[in-house]
Write a structure and sequence with these properties.
single chain; about 170 residues; alpha+beta
Length: about 170
């Protein structure tokens, strides 16, 4: 074998190795980078409609199913911070006795990334006294922090507080 043919073989083998390593490196670098598209602000804002529809069922478990298992609830008409599933169910069992019907007044949505978003603003609830049937409207500030877990948007933090000026 001549020196020239050996140099050609070395060059071909070297080029083949470089192409192979480059291809493997590119595949490894791009593997798993396909990510879902970020949700729109409208999609996140509509999660309230799902939550409000769950309220209308009168079933606390249906409402709480929209919360992550480690969610925190700072509710409108209770002074107690709810940090367990059972505590959140307890809150909604009592709150739902008033047949709440919610309506957003103002909303500001921030989609943080593919798996997290915040919806904050002002909403109001029409509540019906279970004994007298009298209705009252409670206007409140709210914040919902959402995370996508196992492909579903869950509430991980929900803060709601009555407006201080009425």
């Amino acid at each position: 074998m001549t020196r020239r043919s050996m140099n050609k073989r070395v060059a071909i083998v070297t080029a083949t190795v470089i192409v192979a390593v480059g291809t493997v490196g590119t595949v490894a670098a791009t593997a798993g980078t396909h990510t879902a598209k970020k949700a729109s602000r409208t999609q996140i804002a509509s999660l309230f409609d799902t939550w409000n529809a769950a309220l209308k069922t009168g079933d606390a478990d249906k409402v709480v199913d929209l919360y992550a298992s480690d969610a925190v609830l700072l509710p409108t008409v209770s002074n107690k911070v709810r940090t367990t599933h059972a505590e959140i169910v307890d809150y909604f069992e009592h709150f739902l006795e008033n047949k709440p019907v919610g309506k957003k007044v103002q909303t500001v949505v921030d989609v943080l990334d593919n798996d997290s978003a915040i919806d904050t603003g002002v909403y109001e609830f029409t509540l019906t006294d279970p004994d007298t049937g009298a209705k009252r409207v409670v206007k409140a500030r709210y914040t919902y922090a959402y995370e996508k877990r196992d492909g579903a948007w869950k509430i991980v933090n929900h803060h709601s507080s009555a407006m201080p000026e009425g």
